[in-house]
């Protein structure tokens, strides 16, 4: 896996978690790299969510740990506790799984490239109606209907790390239960009769027994719609010179030595002879 990322020039993002200068081209490349890394290494790169009081009342996340569904792509700055500013690339939402098995969504999440930890605002939790209490190095979060939903011990650096599991968005992954359909797509929507022939003759390693399905592939039907063929020859041909002429007028940015900026061309369709005249 490391060799793959080194070949794509993306390994520095994995090993150091940093990006280069924030210009348009670099930002687009980093977004693509982080999305690719997140989908490939998500189980091995889980990070912690730090619960603390921030001056900005939004949650802040990076693209490594969680799958962030961007709702609004915008650029702004957010001010941290040490008065430093970090660039915000967008706002979205994150789907999480609670310990009781239920699902929940953290909304208004700011996407920040340069952060190494995911941060959660106490102020916004309070605005959402949650009751938070800190007593004897323990932070508890209570919901009016569900009761206690989180209990976090304070870390040595006086933060409250919460271990929360992020769900993969349905639009990023899907599972095809039927192996025949899976191999049909892997082979570029080849017909099932050919797939069955490959399987019966054992021409492809690890290709299972293919059972042609009863329904048709919608993508194949849409891709094989009737199309009129291109004409094999011209519908009409000229029979003598100067019967049909092709002409075009062009300009150049730099004047010629003779002071000409334009030139016009004439092409005889019958003899294919061309004339070029320069114009001022």
Topology readout:
Layout: H1 2-7, H2 11-16, H3 24-41, E1 49-52, E2 59-61, E3 69-72, E4 76-79, E5 85-97, E6 103-112, E7 118-121, H4 122-127, E8 131-135, E9 138-143, E10 147-153, E11 160-162, E12 165-166, H5 179-186, H6 192-200, H7 218-223, E13 245-251, E14 262-268, E15 274-279
Parallel strand pairs: 1-7, 2-6
Antiparallel strand pairs: 1-11, 3-5, 4-5, 5-6, 5-12, 8-9, 9-10, 13-14, 14-15
Protein model, in words:
The protein is an alpha+beta fold and 280 residues long. It folds into three domains: 46-170, Beta Barrel (Cathepsin D, subunit A, domain 1); 179-223, no CATH class; 245-279, no CATH class. Helix content is 21%, strand content 30%. The protein contains seven helices and 15 strands. It has helices spanning 2-7, 11-16, 24-41, 122-127, 179-186, 192-200, 218-223; strands at residues 49-52, 59-61, 69-72, 76-79, 85-97, 103-112, 118-121, 131-135, 138-143, 147-153, 160-162, 165-166, 245-251, 262-268, 274-279. Strands 2, 3, 4, 5, 6 and 12 form a six-stranded mixed beta sheet that branches. A three-stranded mixed beta sheet has the order 7-1-11. A hairpin with a 5-residue loop joins strand 5 (85-97) and strand 6 (103-112). It is flat and about 100 Å long. It starts with a helix and ends with a strand. Residues 1-21 and 37-65 have low confidence and may be disordered.
